[in-house]
Amino acid sequence: MAVTVVLTVVSTLVFPVSLGQIGILGMLAGLAIAQTEVTRQIERQRRMLSQGPHITVTSVWLLPAALLVPPQLVAALGVIIYVYLAFRSWNGTRPGEAHRVAANATTMILSGFGAALAGHLADGHSVTTVVAGALGYFLVNTALTGLGLYLTDPAKATAESCLGTMDDNLIELATLCVGGLLVMVLSHEPLLSVLVILPLYVLQRSMLIKRLEELATTDQKTQLLNATTWQDGAQREISRAERENGSFGALMIDLDHFKRINDTYGHLAGDDVLKAVAAVVKQETRAHDLVGRFGGEEFVALLPSTSKEDAIVTAERIRQRISELVIPTQTNEGVAVSIENRTASIGVAAFPLDGTSMEEVMAAADAAVYAAKNSGRNRVVGSVNPARELAAVA
């Protein structure tokens, strides 16, 4: 924040301000406030449902400001927007909220300064200036946001958690594109700038709908498909296999002695184990395979166009990877621990060899899991259905 204040003061002393630039500031502030009012309910719901950093459309306003007005007015716009957001969209600041609002405003203002510098260095055709400014904004914003997220929890920081997912970055780039177009509109037909509100409303609404869809279809602990969504996908796959005389493999994965982890280290440590195992199952299956959490410590995977033998090979890879996991976590008392030497019993069945319905296939896989546990755990067992296998051979 100190850097932002110093740069703003220096800019105030160095760069003069014209009435036209003050007019642009007022127009951008008015548009930002209008957009906040139009999308207030949407943004509140998005914030409540968000599990990671909340992506706003602030860059739509700060990018034009960075390229059209002096830096001190960019800072003024950032302050106006975030003060208004704090007291209108978020219904006032809660304990500890003021610091977060100040940090976010500082990040966005510095990103605006980065855009202004990049645009100034480009010093060419208006299109080149806009592209350079957008790139400068994106890079500074990504760097500052990533650094802040890393410092919040270095132990659990990953490249994706700090730099954002592909979708997160595409959303930010989309808002910068709208901001770039707004630069052109403000430069030639300022009154048309009000038209930007509707596309932004649709963008924010689409982000909310996408989040609701994710919550409805995804297990929130593991980010795999939840049981209902997995079963719906499995029914579609069995219909496809019936039409095309195809086959698929089904895996049921049950962690051995999982209750001991919860009893020894606590349920939060157990959640970390579930997340680590889910990541392994996802990594060892293909992008089009259906992978889900069936409940508790059970996972399921449906492998389209896969024979029973190949499904067993995949299951063996998963079992081996799980046994090699070293999972850093902590107890309920906050003591750091590493959980390792975990095992899983995996049952494998196949369509149509082990059943002609999803219920029959999964029942066969479940029986194979029990067979694996009864024979010592930490192993893969293929289902045994003598009648069907003899019929298949005949």
In words, what does this structure look like?
It is built from 16 helices and 7 strands. By secondary structure, it is α+β, with helices and mostly antiparallel strands. The strands form 2 sheets. A 5-stranded mixed sheet has the order 2-3-1-6-7, sandwiched between helices. Strands 4-5 form a two-stranded antiparallel ribbon. The longest helix is centred in the middle third of the chain and has 27 residues, at 126-152. It starts with a helix and ends with a helix. Mean pLDDT is 88; it is low at 388-394.
Walk me through the topology.
Elements: H1 2-14, H2 19-38, H3 40-49, H4 59-68, H5 71-89, H6 97-122, H7 126-152, H8 159-163, H9 166-188, H10 197-217, H11 227-243, E1 248-255, H12 258-265, H13 267-283, E2 290-295, E3 298-304, H14 308-324, E4 326-330, E5 336-340, E6 344-351, H15 358-374, E7 380-382, H16 386-393
Parallel strand pairs: 6-7
Antiparallel strand pairs: 1-3, 1-6, 2-3, 4-5
Helix pairs in contact: 2-4, 2-5, 3-10, 4-5, 4-6, 4-7, 4-9, 5-6, 6-7, 7-9, 12-13
Organism: Amycolatopsis halotolerans
Transmembrane segments: 6-34, 55-85, 105-122, 129-150, 170-203
Protein name: GGDEF domain-containing protein
